[in-house]
Structures are given as structure tokens and as C-alpha cells.
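Appendix B: a complete holo record

For completeness, this appendix reproduces one full record from the ligand-bound portion of the collection. The bound molecule is flavin-adenine dinucleotide. The inputs are the chain sequence and the ligand SMILES; the output is the full three-dimensional arrangement of the complex, encoded as C-alpha cells. No fields have been trimmed.
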Amino acid sequence: MIGPIFGGFGSMRVSTGKASGSENRVFTVVVEGFGGGRQRRGERRFTVPFEQLQTLMQAIARKGGRIRVVSSEAVPSGPLATSPADGPASAPPAVEAAPADPAPAPAQTSKPKPAAAVSHADVPVNLYKPKDPFLGTVVDNYNLLAEGAIGRVNHITFDLAGGDPQLHYVEGQSIGIIPDGTDANGKPHKLRLYSIASTRHGDDLADHTVSLCVRQLEYEKEGQTIYGVCSTFLCDIEPGAKVKITGPVGKEMLLPDDEEANIIMLATGTGIAPMRAYLRRMFDGSERDKNGWQFRGKAWLFMGAPKTANLLYDDDFNRYQAEYPDNFRYTKAISREEQNSKGGRMYIQDRVLEHADEIFTMIEDPKTHVYMCGLRGMEPGIDEAMTAAAAAKGINWAELRPQLKKAERWHVETY
Ligand SMILES: Cc1cc2nc3c(=O)[nH]c(=O)nc-3n(C[C@H](O)[C@H](O)[C@H](O)COP(=O)(O)OP(=O)(O)OC[C@H]3O[C@@H](n4cnc5c(N)ncnc54)[C@H](O)[C@@H]3O)c2cc1C
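The structure of the chain with flavin-adenine dinucleotide bound, as generated:
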């Protein structure tokens, strides 16, 4: 059985699964950009016993190699192989000996970079603060739900032109909205945060708009229907109105720069907002022409909604899937219309469990990032599903999740 290892240099951990110990395993490391000349461009594969793994990793780090995949395999009882020639029959093929590196190992002074780092440089933060917000103009406000849907969700676009500084942002950030009026104490309302649903270029690609996906908060209290202050303000707002905007804020949900990254997205309801921005950046034709970021990795969206009519931006995602079948996969969980394997409602965590094997195979690749966004209530369900899915592959999720987080590959924004 192949046992996975995750994280690249920054968070290298060995999962021995059900095996009795690491000393009974061989490790295969696939490296890119290793060595000199023509070799640098290709992939190389090394298979070593456990006691040589650390040395191999140090050599790869020194030579600037990028680890693509690490896997381990139990060796039948008997002496371990130290070279391809006398390796175990079950060892993976195309084995190379560990790279010799006679140079003394320099003391490691700086922390190794995570395998698939997200660039935080040049990310704008707090260009406009609550005391002096930017006054944006509403240019569009339309309903996103189909006939028969539950609740009210709108797509709202603001013009940001004319600010000094210009209010700009990147995908995965949020902005603050200060609704007009005063609270019960007569004080101005506080800001509410909303995930940005447009790319940095804006829906019209003119570089000066921002779009949000807003659900009107509605709940019952003591026999009365209560509507949220800011979400109602936004869903009701008319084009031409001026709105106080702050931010942008947030660096948790940034996309990696790597055009070959893999992006797994778990969204419920308006948690789709940042994913809509990512997917436009990846697959919308005009946006791609404009941004020059030619995404070539795999993107997989898991979207949870109560009814089909509540799916948000569904037509766009179906189109991306038709146009980029090798790069985009779209998996829906419609809780009130579909059943899980136990006959209960189909939630996003049930879909995660169904595809556990593929998800964890993707996560083994250091280029894979996972993004989760939506109501806070979705977290325990996803965590449970990831725990079960990981266990099926002999992995301890409680140990792996913080490693992924540290490597900036596990991104969560729930509210
Ligand atoms: C980072 C971040 C990103 C966000 N992104 C989005 C987004 O993309 N889209 C979006 O629609 N929202 C988003 N939100 C949520 C948003 O900020 C607001 O919280 C939401 O719109 C409600 O604000 P409101 O002013 O309408 O409600 P308020 O008038 O502020 O009412 C909220 C309050 O009502 C009470 N309440 C709520 N539900 C119930 C209930 N069932 N029973 C009893 N009391 C209840 C609670 O006290 C709660 O604090 C995000 C939040 C964060 C932190």
C-alpha cells in the first residue's frame, strides 16, 4: 500500500498509516527543477529507505528542487534496499539513487518556504478606514436566485473610480460596507464585511468596480421576522446610490501565483463569492485575456445549496466545465433534493466523503490548496468528513490540517 506524505519542505511529515514503523518503508520523491542544465526542466524520481530520507531532502533543498510528490511504500520483511539495483520487488519503478552532494551542508538559517506559497506581496490592505470611507456608487444590483429558491441573494456592483488612492483589491479579499442610518443607540452603524465576488479587474474588466454576493439575513424571533440591517440595505439599494466602503482586508483566501496549482473549493451559499472570483480569473475568456494568468492546474468546486434554484452563478460554472473539462470539475450537493448514501439530506460534506480518495490524492501534491467559505456552521461537518476521508487512507486529519495550514494550503473564511 502506498502511504502518502504531505507538505514539502516546510511541513514535511511522514504518515506511516497502519504500518508498524517508518524503518520498514521506502520513500519515493518526485522532484522538479533539480540539478543543472537540461535536467533542471525535467522531473526526477528518487527512492530511498527512511534513514536516507532526511539527507535526500536536504540535498534537494540545496539544489533548489521542487518536490512534486512524495509517497511511501511498505517493504516486505528483509533488509532494505539502498540502491535501485537491489531494491524490493514492490518498489516503484524508475528509481534513482539519492543525489550525491559532497559539499558540506550549510546550517539552515532561514525557514524553508512552503511548497506552494501564496504571494502576500503587493496585496492592498485598509486603503479606506471606517473613519474616512470611500463613497462608491452602485452600478448594478440584481437577484441571483431562480424561481422557487429560498431567501434572497443579490449580486451588487459598485463603481470605485475617482478615489485617491484608487480602491483596488485582489481575489480572495473582502470589503467593509457601512450601511446608512443609525443603530438602536442612535450611533452610526458599524461596518459589515463582505467577500469580494469579482476579480481585481471587475466584472466589466474596467479595473474600477467591485462586486459582492449578498444574502439578506432573515430570521424569526419571538414570532417576528427580523431582517439584517446591512444585508437588507444592500439588497434593496438602487443603482446610482452612494455607499460607504472600507478596506480591502484579508490575506487568508488569496490564490497562489502558480498557474499550475490545484484548487479545491468548498462553498455553501454566499461562500461562493471568493470562488466566483477565482473561477472567473481561471476560466472566463475575456478575464483570462486581460489578466495574462494562464491557469493550467485543476480546480474542483464543491458547492452546497438547499435547492437547485439556490445555486449561485451556476450557468457560468457549467460553461467553464464544458470549456475546460480537463481543468474544472463542479460537484453540487443539493440538500433538499438529493440524498446521501444513508438516505439523509445530501450536504457538501457527504460529497467530500464520496470523493475522499481523489481529494486526498490531490492534497498529497504540494501544489494543491483547499479553500472553504460559507456559514460557520459548515466547518464541523467538513472537519468530520475530512477526518473520515483521511482515516480511510491511513492519515490523521487532526495532525495534517495544521501542517497544511502552516504551508498556506488550507484556507478557511467562515462567518
Ligand atoms: C469575512 C466575512 C465575509 C463575509 N462575506 C459575506 C458575503 O460574501 N455575503 C454575505 O451575505 N455575507 C457575508 N458576511 C456576513 C456579513 O458580514 C453580515 O454579517 C451579514 O450580512 C449580516 O449582517 P446584517 O447587518 O444584515 O445583520 P445584523 O443586523 O447585523 O444582524 C446580525 C445579528 O442578528 C442576530 N442573528 C442572526 N441570525 C439569527 C438567528 N437565526 N436567530 C437569532 N438572532 C440571529 C445575531 O445577533 C447577529 O449578530 C461575511 C462576514 C465576514 C466576517
